[in-house]
Design goal:
Elements lengths: L1 H10 L12 H12 L27 E9 L5 E4 L7 E4 L6 E10 L3 E11 L25 H18 L32 E7 L6 E4 L4 E4 L10 E5 L7 E3 L8 H14 L18 E10 L6 E9 L4 H11 L5 E8 L11 E7 L3 E5 L2 E5 L9 H15 L8 E5 L5 H7 L4 E6 L2 H13 L5 E5 L18 E4 L8 H10 L3 E6 L2 H13 L10 E9 L9 E8 L1
GO molecular function: mRNA binding; RNA methyltransferase activity; S-adenosylmethionine-dependent methyltransferase activity
Family: Belongs to the class I-like SAM-binding methyltransferase superfamily. RNA M5U methyltransferase family.
Protein name: TRAM domain-containing protein
């Protein structure tokens, strides 16, 4: 695996800098090539495969028989035609699977994207997906892959990205060695019913599941009786903003949340109620989104459910039948109405109204209480977040004598900083979203924490005055969103030279890039690296999805 993967990574070393748009396809190929294992060598009992056809080039709409050899980041299967070295990325393909697929896009001749039509031979870790929509819904498309195999592939992805894009020694990435940098992935104990928040969309176009008719050599739409002129409530079909896959229940959300979804589905399509979904093309209609959040009563530990209807205007009388039915569920303690008059697809309202109960629910995390409003950011897997934050606390290596300054970058609602505050001298948190900062301040007050300061500011636009308003930090926690850290912030980190950085990442590709900058420097920017990567702990927060969280510890050289 090392030769092809390393060659692919070396060929596309522009990942070390920010790439223009026309290079992004090449970068995706580099990821695909780096993560696809070499085909196994033939055994003495089998005849060798035909020599690779290096000049093979598929055509758009061509139907091909493929073999999936691995998973690229974001969960796309890395596939090839037998005897060819040309890579096709196929959503829904899993390692070891033979499948029939149609070529959809050719990416500048470097690789292609294909749509899976049907399985010819199942993959080696195949299991029956418990959800009948798993193959069509993009939410948790790895359900048919055994969980042990899911985390094995996630761990491999992190390793290959650290080696090929982070430029770290592969010998230090072996988890079996006691001094290895890359530690074993932390699995999730609960692989279903783990999400505390789900957002469903109302739509005017119900997505039709597709199937392959071999005898006609065409892809056709399944016959499906559609009620309500195609109205639907569910999740957006992958790749479509205007088509919604109708969902009756979701195995990722809590059981009380499933009860809410079932009642809404039973009620809203009644023509007598006059409820209409918002049409994203014509910009008419009432119902936009249904958000369901689950928390816990801090006294009893019983589940608390918040239901939030996002609508195009404020007409509470239209929602009254839904409210009356939903409140029959004992776990429901809050029903909110966010009004969003814009034509966009956001679920955050310009105005918010309480239709029933209280405007917030509560949750416990690392011994602290958090109030969660309809639009608050909160880790969507509460139990695994507790594990994640425990590991972050251990990685921070606080002395515990209250002498250290913590800088919490991209702090969100303050959850990480607040869990560390009682062992620190002071926590300074920075976040661009003003509502998140407001929630962070409320959470600090709720928990009696007075040594935490939260500041609203864009960390992608820092200038030479950044850092003047707080003492030099002893420990920096950085938890950026998927694009990772801006070069301005990385240069500031290299200048301030905090003794320890704990980098919490939800995107191992940009994480590997940023770790490379911090440890090895950036030639183009004449910046020298000054950190040593000590540990990387992958944490699976979201089973059946391609998402991976990593906790990385860097120490000043």
């Amino acid at each position: 695996m090392a030769t092809a993967a390393a060659a692919a990574a070396a060929a596309f070393s522009p990942l070390r800098r920010r790439l223009p748009l026309h290079h992004r396809g090449r970068r995706l190929l580099a990821v695909a090539a780096a993560l696809s294992p070499e085909p196994p060598a033939p055994t003495p009992t089998t005849s060798p495969p035909p020599p690779p056809r290096k000049g093979y080039f598929p055509k758009r709409n061509e139907v091909l028989e493929l073999t999936c050899e691995g998973l690229a980041f974001k969960g796309k299967g890395v596939c090839r035609v037998d005897g060819s070295t040309f890579v096709l990325l196929c959503d829904g393909a899993l390692p070891g699977e033979r499948l029939l697929a149609r070529v959809r896009r050719i990416r500048r001749g470097a690789f292609a994207e294909a749509a899976k039509l049907r399985t010819l031979e199942p993959h080696r870790d195949a299991v029956d997906a418990p959800c009948p929509l798993a193959a069509d819904c993009g939410g948790c498309k790895a359900q048919s892959l055994a969980y042990a195999a899911q985390i094995r592939h996630k761990h491999l992805q992190v390793r290959e990205l650290l080696v090929n894009f982070g430029k770290f020694d592969p010998r230090k990435m072996e988890s079996s060695e006691p001094d290895a940098i890359l530690k074993p992935i932390v699995p999730c104990d609960e692989i279903f019913r783990y999400r505390n928040k789900m957002e469903f969309s109302f739509g005017t176009k119900r997505w039709m599941q597709r199937e392959w008719k071999e005898e006609k050599d065409v892809e056709v739409v399944k016959e499906e009786k559609v009620e309500g002129d195609g109205y639907s409530l569910g999740l957006h079909a992958p790749g479509f903003f205007d088509k919604v896959l109708h969902v009756e229940k979701c195995l990722l959300q809590s059981e009380p949340a499933d009860k809410v979804l079932a009642i809404v589905q039973e009620t809203w399509l009644d023509p007598a109620l006059g409820l209409t979904p918002y049409d994203v093309h014509k910009h008419v209609g009432f119902l936009k989104h249904l958000m369901i959040r689950t928390g816990r009563n801090i006294t009893t530990g019983a589940p608390e459910v918040m239901v939030n209807f996002v609508t195009s205007c404020y007409k509470p009388e239209l929602l009254e039948p839904l409210v009356n039915n939903i409140t029959k569920i004992p776990e429901v303690v809050s029903i909110m109405n966010n009004v969003n008059t814009s034509v966009g697809n956001t679920s955050v309202g310009e105005e918010e109204y309480t239709l029933y109960g209280k405007p917030t629910i509560t949750e416990m995390l690392r011994g602290l209480t958090f109030q969660i409003s309809a639009n608050s950011f909160f880790q969507t897997n509460t139990k695994q977040a507790d594990v994640l934050y425990k590991l972050i606390g251990e990685s921070a290596g606080l002395k515990g004598d209250g002498s250290e300054i913590i800088l919490d970058l991209f702090c969100g609602t303050g959850t990480i900083g607040l869990t560390l505050a009682r062992r620190a001298k002071h926590v300074y948190g920075y976040e661009v979203v003003p509502e998140a900062i407001a929630d962070a301040k409320k959470n600090a007050k709720l928990n009696g924490i007075s040594n935490a300061t939260f500041v609203q500011g864009d960390l992608n636009k820092i200038n030479e005055t950044f850092g003047k308003e707080f003492p030099k930090p002893d420990i920096i926690i950085s938890d950026p969103n998927r694009p990772g850290m801006h070069m301005k912030l990385i240069k500031w980190l290299l200048e301030v030279k905090a003794p320890r950085i704990v980098y919490v990442s939800c995107n191992p590709a940009t994480c590997a890039r940023d770790l490379d900058y911090l440890c090895h420097g950036v030639e183009e920017k004449d910046s020298k690296g000054c950190y040593e990567l000590k540990t990387v702990i992958p944490v699976d927060m979201f089973p059946h999805t391609p998402h991976i969280e990593c906790i990385c510890v860097l120490e000043l050289c």
